[in-house]
């Protein structure tokens, strides 16, 4: 497919191939296909329940109507564009399209049931719920879970690889690379569960959410039950109390959760970038790739830098949607009409970031020697272990040392010491022999506590 050179968004230009699967759902065409689906299903429902003198459609006619959705393509896109040029109303254009299809199928007798008792938002809110639900389930979530799966693999592979931790950017009590990656897996999994549990609400109750037109047409029908049954039949959760629009709270909840996931992924990207800059991870050269236009030796961590930027853009869009969609003046205003058309932009930048992170994680390799060298250059971090053991010995009555913390602070703070310095210091300590022998055997690489074992909590 050749793209027009004038595309405004890089998601539709440079990055189109990476995010195009979202277009199946979150594009204007995807939205219109969903609108046709809702209109068609409402026709099938009304006729299937023999409402207003209609008789149930044959199985062939039902299949033919549903085929309008399945086969929705360029011809329908073009026809809708022509219709909307006249109607100046996108949902009305969809209604006319469906009516035209009914004529082609020989179903003019049910034409007046098209869009029956519906306001545009009855169609729109259900359509958005369907396309967002399916985009998340079929495109975004699989990409998100691919990243989690790769991180889980790295966490398990490197669970025993001791490394110097850095709190406030300074050498600190060691951990393992696997455990640090496992932290991200745990965080991302929690958010995944929250996103997967998100409700997708829908309303189907007319111009101001009162079923007024419905009751005028048939006062005897249980319209609330009909609405709930129809909405639930689409796989959505029925919202009984709305204005003309569904209140969009489910959207705000979802976009906040995805934005939260973005920010955790941003934290991951900056940490991996930092580990690369420290030499903990080597970047695997990609055949033919150029790192720098002038410095041939360089392999730039562009995957993680690209991810950072796109996660920031995604959250900016999704945060804006979450903040604004929950407000609509009185019974309805149109501010949501244009903002919801940017849902795909928010998810597109997040999907692009996920792709970069996944690729980036597959292009790095742990340098165990670099981790070991860093640990061996920072024996002063064992000051924590020594002062804690002394305190335990004092408490047990095996030492009379006063203020163990101050003692180790004097030895280590702002200083670089080596193994010999530490051995000489421990040998002179007034503590029990068992504790002394334990400390004399301690090394920075061996002072990672339960880090490796903690990775088991991912299973």
UniProtKB/TrEMBL annotation:
<dbReference type="InterPro" id="IPR020557">
    <property type="entry name" value="Fumarate_lyase_CS"/>
</dbReference>
<comment type="pathway">
    <text>Purine metabolism; AMP biosynthesis via de novo pathway; AMP from IMP: step 2/2.</text>
</comment>
<protein>
    <submittedName>
        <fullName>Adenylosuccinate lyase</fullName>
        <ecNumber>4.3.2.2</ecNumber>
    </submittedName>
</protein>
<dbReference type="GO" id="GO:0004018">
    <property type="term" value="F:N6-(1,2-dicarboxyethyl)AMP AMP-lyase (fumarate-forming) activity"/>
</dbReference>
<dbReference type="GO" id="GO:0006188">
    <property type="term" value="P:IMP biosynthetic process"/>
</dbReference>
<feature type="domain" description="Fumarate lyase N-terminal">
    <location>
        <begin position="13"/>
        <end position="307"/>
    </location>
</feature>
<dbReference type="InterPro" id="IPR013539">
    <property type="entry name" value="PurB_C"/>
</dbReference>
<dbReference type="InterPro" id="IPR047136">
    <property type="entry name" value="PurB_bact"/>
</dbReference>
<keyword id="KW-0456">Lyase</keyword>
<comment type="pathway">
    <text>Purine metabolism; IMP biosynthesis via de novo pathway; 5-amino-1-(5-phospho-D-ribosyl)imidazole-4-carboxamide from 5-amino-1-(5-phospho-D-ribosyl)imidazole-4-carboxylate: step 2/2.</text>
</comment>
<dbReference type="InterPro" id="IPR024083">
    <property type="entry name" value="Fumarase/histidase_N"/>
</dbReference>
<dbReference type="Pfam" id="PF00206">
    <property type="entry name" value="Lyase_1"/>
</dbReference>
<comment type="function">
    <text>Catalyzes two reactions in de novo purine nucleotide biosynthesis. Catalyzes the breakdown of 5-aminoimidazole- (N-succinylocarboxamide) ribotide (SAICAR or 2-[5-amino-1-(5-phospho-beta-D-ribosyl)imidazole-4-carboxamido]succinate) to 5-aminoimidazole-4-carboxamide ribotide (AICAR or 5-amino-1-(5-phospho-beta-D-ribosyl)imidazole-4-carboxamide) and fumarate, and of adenylosuccinate (ADS or N(6)-(1,2-dicarboxyethyl)-AMP) to adenosine monophosphate (AMP) and fumarate.</text>
</comment>
<feature type="domain" description="Adenylosuccinate lyase PurB C-terminal">
    <location>
        <begin position="328"/>
        <end position="447"/>
    </location>
</feature>
<dbReference type="InterPro" id="IPR000362">
    <property type="entry name" value="Fumarate_lyase_fam"/>
</dbReference>
<dbReference type="InterPro" id="IPR022761">
    <property type="entry name" value="Fumarate_lyase_N"/>
</dbReference>
<dbReference type="Pfam" id="PF08328">
    <property type="entry name" value="ASL_C"/>
</dbReference>
<keyword id="KW-0658">Purine biosynthesis</keyword>
<dbReference type="InterPro" id="IPR008948">
    <property type="entry name" value="L-Aspartase-like"/>
</dbReference>
């Amino acid at each position: 497919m050749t793209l027009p050179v004038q595309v405004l968004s890089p998601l539709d230009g440079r990055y189109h191939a990476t995010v195009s699967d979202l277009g199946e759902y979150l594009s204007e065409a995807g939205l219109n296909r969903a609108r046709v689906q809702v209109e068609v299903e409402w026709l099938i429902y009304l006729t299937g329940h023999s409402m207003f003198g209609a008789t149930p459609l044959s199985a062939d006619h039902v299949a033919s109507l549903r085929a309008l959705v399945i086969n929705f393509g360029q011809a329908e896109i073009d026809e809708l564009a022509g219709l909307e040029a006249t109607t100046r109303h996108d949902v009305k254009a969809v209604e006319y399209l469906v009516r035209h299809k009914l004529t082609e199928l020989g179903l003019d007798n049910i034409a007046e049931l098209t869009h029956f008792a519906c306001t545009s938002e009855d169609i729109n809110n259900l359509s958005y719920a369907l396309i967002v639900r399916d985009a998340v389930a079929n495109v975004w979530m699989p990409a998100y879970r691919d990243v989690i799966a790769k991180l889980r693999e790295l966490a398990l592979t490197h669970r025993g690889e001791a490394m110097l931790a850095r709190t406030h950017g300074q050498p600190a009590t060691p951990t393992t690379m696997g455990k640090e990656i496992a932290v991200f897996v745990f965080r991302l999994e929690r958010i995944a569960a929250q996103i997967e549990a998100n409700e997708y609400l829908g309303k189907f109750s007319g111009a101001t959410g009162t079923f007024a037109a419905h009751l005028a047409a048939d006062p005897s029908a249980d319209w609330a039950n009909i609405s709930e049954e129809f909405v639930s039949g689409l796989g959505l959760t029925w919202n009984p109390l709305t204005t003309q629009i569904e209140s969009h709270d489910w959207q705000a909840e979802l976009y906040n959760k995805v934005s939260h996931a973005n920010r955790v992924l941003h934290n991951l990207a900056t940490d991996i970038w930092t580990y690369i800059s420290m030499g903990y991870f080597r970047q695997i050269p990609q055949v033919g790739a150029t790192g720098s236009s002038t410095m041939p030796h360089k392999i730039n961590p562009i995957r993680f830098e690209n991810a950072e930027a796109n996660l920031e853009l995604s959250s900016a869009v999704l945060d804006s949607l979450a903040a604004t969609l929950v407000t609509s003046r009185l019974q309805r205003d149109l501010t949501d009409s244009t903002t919801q058309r940017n849902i795909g932009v928010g998810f597109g930048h997040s999907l692009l970031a996920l792709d970069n992170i996944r690729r980036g994680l597959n292009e790095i390799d742990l340098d165990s020697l670099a981790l070991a060298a860093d640990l061996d250059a920072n024996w002063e971090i064992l000051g924590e272990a020594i002062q804690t053991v002394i305190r335990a010995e004092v408490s047990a009555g095996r030492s009379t040392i006063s203020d163990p913390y101050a003692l180790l602070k004097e030895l280590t703070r702002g200083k670089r010491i080596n193994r010999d310095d530490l051995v000489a210091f421990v040998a002179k300590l007034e503590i029990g022999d068992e504790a002394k022998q334990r400390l004399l055997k301690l090394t920075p690489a061996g002072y990672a506590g339960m880090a490796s074992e903690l990775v088991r909590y991912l299973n």
